[in-house]
């Protein structure tokens, strides 16, 4: 199979002039398409979807809207424009010119970082592949597919790095990215949250709000990397990641809005009555929030990590907004406060800043997540409803780090196993909750119509009118 | 409107805090660091923002695409914007929604678009135009940043490429839109002069990309269509302006004569003289995006008396043949029979017929009223020669917003 490189794969990495890269991609691209056919959005091959395609990194080049059949989507390879005279901005190599090729001593670590990031991209497409069958509107279906094709593009971005900079090892890793499967018992995806199911649209919105935001923070940390191609790739990916978080934030917000409308119209806050009205009670939304928040913050890894310290000192992965932070950017003599368990109390403990970098990124992430929850509460407040959503305590429901296996309530009290057993159904989605949410899921495909459990969006995609046909079925 | 707009107002770029998700994309994108944030809101610095609109396409939410008319001396401060939970609504004047189209403009537009029976709807993939942001009571003052003669020194007609700079005031245009110029002074009845409309000759991001400017193609009028001497008030005023001079501008206008944005769309452009202005804008838009290889063809039929009177002749000839199919008709070449655009349309009938049938091809006609009939007749002939009926095709073209006429 031959590829017309400049037409089919929009890029700014001189793909047409790089024979080695072409050969690698010629082999990989058909496998990618097989993977997309097998594991991409179910039954969508012939849909014409109003999608945004990036065709260059200029402001007016990367948001080109038009109808596209997803297997024909032009997955491109883009690096953000190079920064003149860029340096390694942190760690032991601080001040040296940024690396344009992989430094030998960091090769294994860099490959590991890129593979871990790359693995999440196809994983989320797999997790979401059935959702198109139950989309609450054409608008939402289109947003789902946009997220899917862009996760596909992010996979391309990581595969480009593997092919271009890591030789044979890189090519093998690129193949393996197409072979692992989310939730597969024998060959699962690398990270836990990416083996969870995304069974319904409330889960999808929560996932894009919380878990794609983890993506944002990881990409931000990698965009500080001293390995310049990784920095430039991830900087461009961030512009796309923003859309995914938009889908999550506005999606949850619209669910809340619809519920609050029903609460006011029917003058009730009884979950049973609200469920009978076909909307999702705020208590259930809170339980979903607790689940996705806690599962996602595990993605940042152990609170004390020598790997994280090594990645930083080596100049491979920085802190969030590293270059905007003050200080020496080496962190050898700095400390950081983390949470620890003393008996049945949670206490603050001062530890090395270098080994706490996972925790620090998690804290940055939590701040950002909580700000958005505040915006959801504004919607509730606007409707005159007293309920407020809250982020659970960061020790709640953890599977990784100091609090793995420790029972902690959403408000931060350490519990006995008996107390947890007694109460956890109030805090995490139950089988009944999931069954109820699943019962609401039915496909709405009439332009401008929305399922009863979600409010329409305020603005159309690309300013399109409310009844725009975002997806055409063929 | 609760207050009469004065010349001291401006459009302030604001971000809707209820729609914004604080993703930082706009701040990252802004080439001049006009966007900042605190822990609550993302906001635009009024004194820095040049309305270059680079932040608009990357915004995932649409929150960025909001504007408020404010007194230039009293824009919303950063502190006020940081404190917003929602955009201020009451008492605000969205000029582009509330102001009616000026009578002069409505009259001229009706004449210009009479060729297809009123204003056509834009192509489905056209961008959304801003219209009527500035009125005769509330014009925007632009500064001339260039005035270049396009026709050869010896040529009988004086056609000029005039660049207007809008400083820090928003004047967003799309290719195919027009603007109005108000000449200074009073007419022979002691009334202010009527507004004169000119097509914008530069693409949407400016004559010089990311500067807040645009270009016009203006012909100095010294005779009427019949060749009788007449002094064009506005054209002579514009052609005589020097760099640094100021001019009163109203508009922008035009919601139909807009280009498609979707990859694979083709343009057939037919023009004479300064009717080339919108064609130049559209061609330039496509030229700047050539590297994107979005597909679609450009076919141009361009008529003038002689090559030296054909505006943009030099740059046009430098465009690659693979990018644009250029057909020039000259009606006053010594020793040559007179040739008009309609003659070339017949010569290129095979390709024209294919493009007329192609739903992704959009047709634009701009120039003197006189050319319209000739072009339509040529289309009729081409259709007949290819076993089609123009009278059946034309309503289909209009229904699909593929046929656009602006003649004067």
General description of the model:
The complex is a heterodimer of chains A (474) and B (408). Chain A is mainly alpha-helical and 474 residues long. Chain A has a single domain (84-444), classed as Ribonucleotide Reductase, subunit A. In chain A, 47% of the residues lie in helices and 6% in strands. Chain A has helices spanning 5-8, 19-39, 107-127, 138-165, 167-179, 201-223, 228-266, 271-276, 282-297, 306-313, 357-382, 417-423, 431-440, and strands at 48-53, 64-69, 335-342, 345-352, 471-472. In chain A, strand 3 and strand 4 (345-352) form a beta hairpin. In chain A, helix 6 (201-223) crosses helix 11 (357-382) and helix 7 runs parallel beside helix 11. In chain B, the strands form four sheets. Chain B has a six-stranded antiparallel beta sheet with strand order 8-7-10-5-6-9, sandwiched between helices. Chain B folds into three domains: 9-93, 2-Layer Sandwich (Alpha-Beta Plaits), CATH 3.30.70; 103-113 and 126-253, Elongation Factor Tu (Ef-tu), domain 3; 266-407, Nucleotide-binding domain of ferredoxin-NADP reductase (FNR) module (Rossmann fold, 3-Layer(aba) Sandwich), CATH 3.40.50. Helix content of chain B is 23%, strand content 22%. The model of chain B is unreliable at 1-7 and 90-99 (pLDDT under 50). Chain B has eleven helices and 15 strands. In chain B, strand 11 (266-272), helix 6 (276-288) and strand 12 form a beta-alpha-beta unit. The longest helix of chain B has 17 residues, at 369-385. Chain B is α/β, with parallel strands linked by helices and 408 residues long.
């Amino acid at each position: 199979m031959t590829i017309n490189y400049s037409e089919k794969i929009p890029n700014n990495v001189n793909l047409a002039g790089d024979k080695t890269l072409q050969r690698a991609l010629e082999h990989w691209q058909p496998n990618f398409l097989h993977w997309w056919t097998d594991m991409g959005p179910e039954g969508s091959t012939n849909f014409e979807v109003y999608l945004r395609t990036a065709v260059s990194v200029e402001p007016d080049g990367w948001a080109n809207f038009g109808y596209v059949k997803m297997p024909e989507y032009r997955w491109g390879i883009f690096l953000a424009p190079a920064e003149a005279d860029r340096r390694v901005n942190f760690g032991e190599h601080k001040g040296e010119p940024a690396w344009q090729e992989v430094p030998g001593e960091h090769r294994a670590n860099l490959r590991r970082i890129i593979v871990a990031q790359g693995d999440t991209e196809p994983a989320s497409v797999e997790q979401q592949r059935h959702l198109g069958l139950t989309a609450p509107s054409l608008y939402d279906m289109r947003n789902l597919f946009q997220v899917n094709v862009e996760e596909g593009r992010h996979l391309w971005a990581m595969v480009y790095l593997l092919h271009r900079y890591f030789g044979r090892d890189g090519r093998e890793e690129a193949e393996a990215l197409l072979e692992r499967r989310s939730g597969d018992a024998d060959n699962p995806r690398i990270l836990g949250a990416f083996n969870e199911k995304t069974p319904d649209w409330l889960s999808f919105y929560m996932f894009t709000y919380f878990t794609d935001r983890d993506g944002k923070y990881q990409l931000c940390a990698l965009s500080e990397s001293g390995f310049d191609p990784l920095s430039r790739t991830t900087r461009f990916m961030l512009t796309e990641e923003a859309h995914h978080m938009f889908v999550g934030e506005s999606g949850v917000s619209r669910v809340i809005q619809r519920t609050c409308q029903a609460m006011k119209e029917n003058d009730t806050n009884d979950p049973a009555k609200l469920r009978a009205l076909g909307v999702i009670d705020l208590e259930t939304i809170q339980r979903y929030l607790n689940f996705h928040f806690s599962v996602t913050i595990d993605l940042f890894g152990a609170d004390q990590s020598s790997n994280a310290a090594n990645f930083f000192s080596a100049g491979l992965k920085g802190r969030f907004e590293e270059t905007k932070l003050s200080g020496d950017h080496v962190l050898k003599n700095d400390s950081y406060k983390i949470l620890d368990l003393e008996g049945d109390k949670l206490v603050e403990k001062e530890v090395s800043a270098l080994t706490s970098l996972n925790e620090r990124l998690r804290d940055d992430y939590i701040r950002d997540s909580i700000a958005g929850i505040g915006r959801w509460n504004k919607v509730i407040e606007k409707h005159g409803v007293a309920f407020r959503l809250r982020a659970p305590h960061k020790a709640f429901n953890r599977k990784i780090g100091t609090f793995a296996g420790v029972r902690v309530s959403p408000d931060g009290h350490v519990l006995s196993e008996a107390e947890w057993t007694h109460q956890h159904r109030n805090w995490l989605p139950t089988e009944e909750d999931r069954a109820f949410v699943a019962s609401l899921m039915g496909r709405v495909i009439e332009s401008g119509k929305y399922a009863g459990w979600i409010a329409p969006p305020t603005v159309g995609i690309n300013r399109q009118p409310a009844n725009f046909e975002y997806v055409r079925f063929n | 409107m609760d207050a009469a707009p004065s010349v001291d107002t401006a459009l302030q770029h604001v971000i809707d805090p209820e729609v914004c998700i604080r993703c930082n994309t706009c701040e990252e994108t802004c080439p001049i660091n006009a966007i900042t944030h605190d822990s609550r809101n993302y906001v635009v610095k009024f004194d820095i923002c040049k309305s270059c609109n680079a932040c608009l396409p990357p915004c995932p939410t649409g929150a960025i695409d909001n504007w408020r008319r404010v007194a230039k001396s009293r824009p919303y401060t950063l502190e006020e914007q940081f404190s917003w939970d929602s955009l201020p609504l009451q008492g605000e004047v969205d000029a582009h929604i509330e102001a009616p189209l000026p009578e002069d403009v409505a009259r001229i537009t009706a004449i210009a678009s009479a060729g297809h029976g009123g204003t056509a709807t834009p192509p489905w993939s056209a961008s959304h135009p801003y219209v009527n942001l500035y009125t005769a009571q509330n014009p925007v003052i632009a500064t001339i940043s260039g005035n270049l003669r396009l026709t050869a020194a010896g040529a009988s007609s004086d056609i000029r490429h005039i660049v207007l700079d809008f400083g820090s005031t928003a004047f967003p245009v799309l290719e195919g839109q027009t603007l109005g110029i108000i000449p200074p002074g009073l007419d022979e009845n002691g009334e202010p002069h009527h507004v004169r409309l000119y097509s914008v000759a530069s693409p949407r991001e400016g004559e010089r990309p990311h500067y807040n400017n645009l270009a016009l193609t203006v012909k100095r009028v010294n005779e009427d269509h019949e060749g009788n001497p007449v002094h064009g008030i506005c054209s002579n005023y514009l052609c005589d302006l020097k760099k640094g001079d100021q001019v009163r501008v109203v508009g922008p206008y035009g919601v139909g004569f807009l280009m498609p944005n979707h990859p694979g769309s083709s343009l057939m452009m037919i023009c004479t003289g300064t009717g080339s202005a919108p064609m130049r804008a559209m061609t330039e838009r496509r030229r700047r995006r050539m590297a994107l290889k979005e597909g679609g063809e450009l076919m141009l039929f361009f008529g003038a008396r002689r090559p030296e009177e054909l505006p943009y002749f030099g740059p046009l000839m430098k465009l690659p043949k693979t990018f644009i199919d250029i057909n020039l008709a000259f009606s006053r070449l010594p020793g040559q029979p007179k040739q008009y655009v309609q003659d070339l349309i017949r010569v290129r009938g095979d390709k024209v017929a294919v493009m007329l049938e192609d739903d992704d091809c959009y047709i634009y006609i701009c120039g003197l009223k006189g050319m319209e009939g000739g072009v339509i007749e040529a289309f009729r002939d081409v259709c007949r020669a290819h076993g089609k009926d123009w009278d059946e095709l034309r309503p289909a073209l209009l229904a699909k917003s593929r046929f656009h006429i602006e003649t004067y």
